[in-house]
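Chapter summary example.
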Amino acid sequence: MSKEYYVNALRESRFKITPQRLQVIKFVNSRTPGHFTADDVFKAVRKSEPTITLATIYNILKAMKDAGTINSFEANGTTWFETNHEFHGNFICRNCGEIVDIPISQSLIKEMNSLEGFSVEEMNLILSGVCEKCRKMESVKL
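The structure predicted for these 142 residues follows.
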């Protein structure tokens, strides 16, 4: 995605592109692909926009989600935002906290759509465990 993608999507959703929104867009664009919290955005954007509040960050992220440019999911009491729009799961390492996108088979999505006449539009699959790097570190300790 490009900065223009986010700008155009917000404009199409009737949002003005303010300096604060532009700084959030720059942050999100720099983290594509990736996962981030509102606090991550706040800490980064505050450097160039010292008057911005965390509430404003949440409002801008909500506008971006409503415009269809980012997704969000809840895990371990934290709201995470991401730019990946494909149906996928998120694996979260319980040791280091790393989040990795896990592809979901298109056949599974088709199967879900055929059940009871459902039409899957949004999915939040959270997987938890230990990532390969942490598993290797654990085996070295043994």
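To summarize the output: Residues 46 and 67 are 23 Å apart (CA to CA).
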